[in-house]
Amino acid sequence: MPDIPQNCLHLIPSESALPPELHDSVRRHHKHLTALAISLRAAGVDEAIVEMSVWQLTESYRVELTAAMQAIVQGKSHA
User: What is the pTM (predicted TM-score) of this model?
Assistant: First the structure.
């Protein structure tokens, strides 16, 4: 998986602004989004493929993020 390009780093909140339980998840999510953007750009895919690819990625992240946020609200660690 590619590293996050320098021009995207300003989009990532500082880790100190996030609950520690979310650090790994946020890093992983940003890496996946970056890889997806690079792949889609290189492939020259149409808008429908872009929409489906983003939906699939964000749906899987939604499930993970929801569980993490529920654990944080309930005062439990989620790793």
Answer: 0.53
